[in-house]
Design a protein that fits this description.
heterodimer; A: globular; B: alpha/beta; four-stranded parallel sheet; 12 helices; transport (chain A)
Chain lengths: 292, 416
């Protein structure tokens, strides 16, 4: 076993974790606050990728990185206002059906409009090329991707933990009824959080479009991994999701490093299985009364 | 009057039953002069979905053309199309098409695993299955079926064609290959073929990995390939896997020669001129300049606004071949059509230089294939013409049978 390659794979796996993070954190946020398991989260990721292809000719790649998440976030707010809002107080099964249906509608709409064949989209010239850390090679584009992901997730953390907005959201996660008793309506916060969470999925879509095939079903692929991350991390825990995303990446890297790449996807489910056996609420899951 | 929940439900039930009745009607009324009904199954979602969509477009075009020209011997052609999803669903849907809709044949499929379950269902019911996209040698070997015919070329044909190219370029003897194979029947089968080819011609393996079909991140394999420093990276991947690989190979700046044994032009188009490299085998491509091929490209482009992919060609050809068989045998009897297909005198115009014909021992349609080579990214004329095609392979003085030499799928016996 080549020690250098082994370490490279671990590091690469760890870095992979950041892609899951952007999707998983939004998924976790929408569930924690509104109790909605958003199965359409991956579909918004796909919308982000397709929008990037559609507007890049006018705005350039960097313009798309800024504009697309805003557009997708607006779509998220509309979705929340029109659909999610009717399902906060009913059996979660209904919202599962709703978002499952929504995911299919979005996927088919993308297929209908853009066709089923994957579309080409490239890394912008300025970010092509590789970075060498000693002998470890990494793509310059992925470094950019990770920096953007860290900034976005860091910004979200500040918003949730250092602002009045965040205090109300966190209170809403723990106990929406007391918040209501204090005369604070959660509705605008629910819309904003859905917008932010879905906007992050859109951001992930733009960022991934240059390195994975852009096709209508691309959302389903990331969604499963993101779910595993949320479950491992534990609901309601910001750092739990961050930790889980990195852990999932690391485990994937480790399985590949020891020469079992065909097990790399199965391994993350095994990890979820083990975590759930040992800690049914996830690694850092908080005790949220209404979900017990 | 408002529709209450129950009323609405009853309404749905009733209209559902009506719809089912309407769908079932053709089979009840089926007479000698009624329409000829075919079933079409192919993956329309998942990693092969993008190819399946081309298949569906081509089938629609073929049926439209045939019916516009008066049908087959005056009978209209009708086609039922469904997403085959996975091997289990594929066989369930095949069974339903045969039992409920009484289709005369099933056409389609891309996944070798699903093709096998459809073939088993069709064989039990003694209906034809024309495979248009599954490549596994085993389907032509130990898993062959009397009622299954293959318009799509089999893996060994790709290995032999691509192998010739690699031999000519000195990339085999004494060279080290890194193989990446899709982790299902198709990839395993190609990997076996590639190993055998390397063994025969004195090459070595620098490394090999099996890739899960839903993997989209190849960065870890890029690190492994870079570390192994192979003389050639050979891919036995399928569908969107190839696109992911090409995009990320460019991203990591790897420069080892690239080639592969499994390929579809859609993967190259999705990767784009900037990322597409190497030389790849191809059953057909839109640059082939025979008269029939040009007409097909023109009709397809006129209808859909983009050129046909090789999977479109496969399903289009399958419908043409079935239509020819129904005309020549004057009916839809599977036994008569099997005899017709197995007859060495039966030839098909494959839009290529030479006519094709079914190999009677495996039911593989023997035909010329091609190799396409990526153009340097600056030289592509448009988003479709990002490669150039070779002339037909094998060379004109070589029989088509040379393409199926050294198949690895076991021996076919139709008796079982």
């Amino acid at each position: 076993m080549n020690m250098f390659l082994f370490l490279s794979q671990l590091l690469n796996g760890l870095l992979d974790g950041f892609y899951y993070l952007l999707i998983a954190i939004g998924l976790s946020l929408i569930f924690s606050l509104g109790g909605i398991v958003n199965l359409a989260h991956g579909a918004f990721f796909a919308i982000g990728a397709y929008l990037a292809i559609a507007i890049t000719p006018y705005t350039g790649f960097f313009g798309a990185v800024i504009i697309v998440p805003l557009l997708v976030a607006a779509l998220g707010v509309v979705t929340e206002r029109l659909l999610f809002t009717r399902f906060y107080r009913v059996d979660p099964l209904y919202s599962l059906l709703l978002t499952f249906g929504l995911a299919m509608v979005i996927e088919q709409a993308l297929r209908w409009h853009f066709g089923s064949a994957p579309l080409a989209y490239n890394i912008p010239g300025a970010l092509r090329g590789q970075v060498f850390l000693g002998d470890f090679i990494y793509s310059r584009y992925r470094i950019f991707l990770i920096v953007v992901a860290v900034l976005a997730v860091g910004g979200l953390w500040l918003l949730l933990n250092r602002t009045a907005f965040g205090r109300i959201v966190r209170a809403g996660i723990q106990n929406p009824d007391i918040l209501a008793a204090m005369g604070i309506s959660l509705r605008p916060y629910l819309s904003t959080v859905a917008g932010i969470a879905i906007g992050l999925a859109g951001l992930a879509g733009v960022l991934m479009a240059p390195i994975v095939p852009v096709h209508p079903a691309m959302g389903g692929e990331v969604l499963t991994a993101a779910f595993v991350v949320v479950v491992i991390g534990g609901l309601g825990s910001f750092w739990g999701v961050v930790l889980a995303a990195l852990l999932v990446g690391l485990v994937k890297g480790l399985v590949i490093a020891i020469g079992l790449p065909s097990w790399s996807l199965a391994a993350i489910y095994l990890l979820m299985f083990v975590v759930l056996l040992l800690r049914p609420r996830g690694l850092m899951g908080e005790r949220i009364l209404r979900f017990e | 009057m408002s529709l209450s929940g129950i009323d609405r439900r009853r309404f749905l039930l009733t209209s559902g039953a009506l719809a089912a009745g309407a769908l079932g009607a053709p089979s009840i009324l089926r007479a000698q002069d009624g329409p000829i009904v075919l079933g079409h199954l192919t993956p329309r979602t998942g990693f092969l979905g993008p190819l399946g969509e081309y298949a569906v477009m081509a089938v629609d075009l073929a049926v439209e053309e045939i019916n516009a020209a008066g049908g087959i011997d005056g009978r209209q052609l009708q086609i039922l199309k469904e997403d085959s999803v996975n091997p289990q669903t594929a066989s369930t849907k095949a069974e339903r098409m045969i039992e409920r809709d009484n289709v005369m044949a099933i056409v389609g499929e891309i996944s070798s695993a699903s093709a096998l379950t459809i073939a088993q269902t069709a064989e039990r019911a003694k209906r034809l299955f024309i495979n248009t996209g599954a490549n596994s040698d085993t389907l032509r070997g130990s898993d062959c079926k009397r009622h299954m015919f293959h318009v799509e070329t089999q893996n060994v044909m790709y290995v032999n064609a691509e192998g010739q190219h690699l031999l000519q370029n000195g990339l085999v003897e004494g060279k080290r290959w890194y193989l990446l194979s899709a982790d299902y029947a198709f990839g395993h089968d190609l990997s076996k073929g590639a190993h055998a080819f390397l063994g025969r011609h004195g090459g070595e393996l620098a490394g090999e990995d099996l890739i899960p079909t839903d993997a989209t991140d190849f960065s870890s394999f890029m690190l492994k390939i870079r570390d192994a420093k192979p003389d050639l990276v050979a891919l036995n991947l399928a569908g969107t896997q190839i696109t992911s690989f090409l995009k990320q190979y460019g991203e990591f700046g790897l420069e080892f020669p690239l080639g592969g044994f499994g390929f579809d032009t859609a993967s190259a188009w999705a990767a784009g001129a900037e990322n597409f490299r190497g030389t790849w085998p191809c059953v057909w491509n839109h640059q082939i300049q025979t008269e029939k091929s040009r007409a097909f490209v023109k009709a397809f482009t006129a209808k859909y606004g983009k050129p046909p992919e090789n999977q479109a060609w496969g399903d289009y050809m399958a419908i043409q071949i079935l239509a020819q068989a129904i005309r020549d045998t004057k009916g839809t009897d599977p036994a008569a059509i099997i005899d017709y297909f197995e007859d060495p005198a039966t030839k098909f115009d494959m839009m290529k230089t030479r006519d094709g014909y079914f190999h009677p021992e495996s039911h593989q349609l023997l035909q010329e294939i091609y190799a396409i080579t990526a153009l340097p990214s600056g030289e592509a004329a448009n988003q479709w013409d990002i490669f150039t095609t070779s002339g037909p392979l094998p060379q004109p003085d070589q029989p088509l049978e040379t393409l199926i030499a050294d198949a690895v799928g076991g021996t076919c016996s139709f008796s079982s």
